[in-house]
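Predict structure. Chain length: 207.
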Amino acid sequence: MPKRSGRPAKGDENNSRDKIIEATIKIIKKSGADAVTVRNVCTNADLSIGTFYHYFRDKDDLLMHFLRETSFELDLETPLTDIAGRITELYMHLIHRYMDLGLDFMKSFYSTGNQSLSAYMGEVDGAFAPGTVMARSEKEMMDALEAGIIIQGADLRTLHTVCMDICTIVKGCVFEWCLNDGKPDIESALRRIIEGYLSRICLVHDP
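Prediction complete.
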């Protein structure tokens, strides 16, 4: 059972938080994201429930950590003229973080029962949350529109819908990667599908 004491001892804050994260990864790899509960995490981390709530509001807030910890305020190497490749590079920044946690983690985390994943990779009141990969993707698409790379007839609502579709494509590629035990080249598949999708809806000028 978890300990009953409350806040972590002074100087032990980072260690306690790391224990919570490590315990969560262990549970997800073994039993899936659905098995993550506050009590289960605290028992595995040998920490009190009070300590857990010092860092996280609830289970969903904890699972959101694995999505929020990746910053998308980064310089992309792919030029804006190659918008499909640039969006692929952006999403691979997130996918590589998943891969670092291992195939077992990916298979268990990327499930229909993980409400935090659904909340993160969605929209609120018709907009993407600031700091998310979707928000950065939409910014890249708008930059491409302003640069004349995307056909000027495309309005902002169209670009938003396109970014939602791309997010769905990414989730499908990740799911396929998990189904095939990490064997497919997810980056090549992602680029090919995004490039084909953008060209089919006639959004990008021919080179």
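Summary: The chain has two domains: 13-64, 70-200.
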